[in-house]
């Protein structure tokens, strides 16, 4: 399962959503029908050998809760302390498919912040993040601002120019 976690949030060769569905399905296996997770993001069950908890996704969890639990499981499983821009892009892609556009935008903004801070800046990745932000923005003016930022990074990209029309 760590290979699937890695392919969900640390690499971009696989479909983000397909990898997420594998992880969420795995985390659903320990759920009992009567479990009711009203507390929020995680439900932990004591592990008798190591003393750490297991993360369980229940049938009544919302999409936001499922992604948050799956992400937390991946952080534990992959021993990630600080996420990189790929992590946030892949989370954004997952939220966008669900469709949870507000959550997707938040993840893309985190990726953009990390990418802007790099030296040298990965212009191709930053362009794609701004393009995604423009695509999922709910405010048309804000969407146009993101697309203009993307266009500055790649002035000849036809997809971005077309989206700005």
Structure summarized in a few sentences:
By secondary structure, the chain is mainly alpha-helical.
DSSP helix fraction: 55-70%
User: Which CATH top level class of the largest domain fits?
Assistant: Mainly Alpha
CATH topology of the largest domain: Serine Threonine Protein Phosphatase 5, Tetratricopeptide repeat
Q: Main sheet?
A: 2 strands, antiparallel
Helix count? 8
Number of domains: 2
Radius of gyration: 18 Å
**Content-based structural category:** mainly alpha
> Which regions have little confidence, pLDDT < 50, spanning 5+ residues?
35-52
Principal-axis shape equals elongated
Give the full name of the CATH homologous superfamily of the largest domain: Tetratricopeptide repeat domain
List how many beta strands DSSP finds. Answer: 2
Give average pLDDT, whole number.
88
Spatial strand sequence of the major β-sheet: 1-2
Taken in chain order, the helices and strands follow as HHEEHHHHHH
Strand content: under 5%
Would you write up a description of this structure?
The chain is mainly alpha-helical and 165 residues long. The chain folds into 2 domains: 77 residues, no CATH class; 80 residues, Tetratricopeptide repeat domain (Serine Threonine Protein Phosphatase 5, Tetratricopeptide repeat). It is built from 8 helices and 2 strands, in the order ααββαααααα. Strands 1-2 form a two-stranded antiparallel ribbon. A hairpin with a 6-residue loop joins β1 and β2. α1 packs across α3. The termini are far apart.
